[in-house]
Write a structure and sequence with these properties.
Length: 189
Amino acid sequence: MKKIIIMLFMGFITFQFNGCSSASSSLIVDDEYSQVMRIFDKLTEKKEIVGIGVASPNDGDDVSFQESLAIAIAQTRISNRVETKVISKLKEYTQETGIKDNKKFIKDVKEAIITKTKNTLKGAKIKKRLRGKSGKIYILMTLKTQDLLNALKLSSDDIKDKETQIQYIQFTAGKYWDELEQDLGEKRK
């Protein structure tokens, strides 16, 4: 009985070590990712908003679908980055100016900006496509900051409430718009 327990224990330990060795092979993927990110970093410029999409091979080996997925991921990352930066600046603006109904202002402007951002993303360009040894597809997409900022300058029709329109005009005329432009134009690290 002891021999069976010892053999099972040794088998378990051997299984654990084999599991560890397969985990170390995943470092190749991490190394691939790091190499791709270094290449992409060299290709990006200041005044661009960057989105990177990565898609693994699929069961049907449908490269077209895989690439479409990577593009969608890159666009989503650009959109999320824009939304985060804009909302951050809107909140700073409302806190500093003491706008009482800041939740409504932020909500109205956020909705209008998200709509504009989605339309502007059509102008995002694929700057580089890479396919790794792992079969993963890596897509680098960029959107010029100035193109986005031009689109984000909302017209009166975009915001229905007159008070929100006035607040938004003050926001775009102030330091917050300049800070937003600077934040969006920073090269990712």
